[in-house]
Structures are given as structure tokens and as C-alpha cells.
Design goal:
- This protein has about 130 residues and is of the alpha+beta class.
- The protein has a single domain, classed as TT1751-like domain (TATA-Binding Protein), CATH 3.30.310.
- It has 5 helices and 5 strands, in the order E-H-E-H-E-H-E-E-H-H.
- A 5-stranded antiparallel sheet has the order 1-5-4-3-2.
- Helix 1 crosses helix 5.
- It is globular and about 40 Å long.
Length: about 130
């Protein structure tokens, strides 16, 4: 699977708060929060569920992978999504190992694996 997703009993707001705190423990910060439902509403389009994208980054890891291969910048920052699906809150992300596999660089694969494990740990702690 290209993603890692969990279900939580928390509200969207509680899940966002929890994942933000859990990410800090892994030295990741939320650079930007994009509420797709609100943005679509501004444009006159209604979405019937909440969907928030968190752009997350660890500056040292970003520098490391960008120095090794600029194409990795296409995948940065990492994304974690918090959304409603069938009246349940979910937290998920595309797996960095799946994304990095497109550049076929063994050194970067090990970095992506470490980042993925840390992000999964944050998601598990937040749920």
C-alpha cells in the first residue's frame, strides 16, 4: 500500500492537535495547514466532509535528502492528512518509502525508511 492510515475516536480538531504534538517529539513541525473543505467553500464549491492536509518537515532531514538528490524536493514537505470518512476521523500519510522508490537511490531509501517509521510512530501516538 502506498499509504499508512489509522482511525481515531478523536474529532478532527483533537486529531490535528494530537498529531502536531506527537510530531514535535520526532523533531517534525507543521509548516502549513490546508483545510480543503474551507478553501473549496471560498471558491463556491461545497465538500461534505472535513479534509485537512498538514505539511510537515524536519529541516535537517530535508537538507539531507535535497543535498543528495534535488528530485526529492518533488515529495517535500511530507504530508499528513486528517479527514472524515463515513463519520469517522482518520489520520494518514503517503509512505515516504513508496515515494522515494521513484528515484531509485539506496541511500535515500534508508533515510525514507527512518522518516516513515518516525511519522508512523507519531500517527500511532496521536490516535
Amino acid at each position: 500500500m502506498f499509504h499508512y492510515t489509522v482511525e481515531t475516536s478523536k474529532s478532527i480538531e483533537e486529531a490535528i492537535s494530537s498529531i502536531t504534538e506527537a510530531l514535535k517529539e520526532e523533531k517534525f513541525g507543521v509548516q502549513w495547514q490546508f483545510n480543503i473543505k474551507d478553501k473549496l467553500h471560498e471558491k463556491g464549491v461545497e465538500l461534505d466532509k472535513e479534509f485537512v492536509v498538514l505539511e510537515v518537515c524536519n529541516p535537517n532531514e530535508a537538507k539531507k535528502v535535497l543535498t543528495a538528490n534535488s528530485l526529492v524536493g518533488y515529495f517535500l514537505p511530507c504530508k499528513i492528512v486528517v479527514y472524515e470518512d463515513q463519520n469517522k476521523t482518520k489520520i494518514g500519510m503517503p509512505k515516504p518509502t513508496q515515494l522515494i522508490s521513484m528515484v531509485a537511490d539506496e541511500e535515500l531509501t534508508s533515510v525514507a525508511k527512518d522518516i516513515e517509521q518516525r511519522l508512523i510512530a507519531s500517527i500511532e501516538k496521536a490516535k
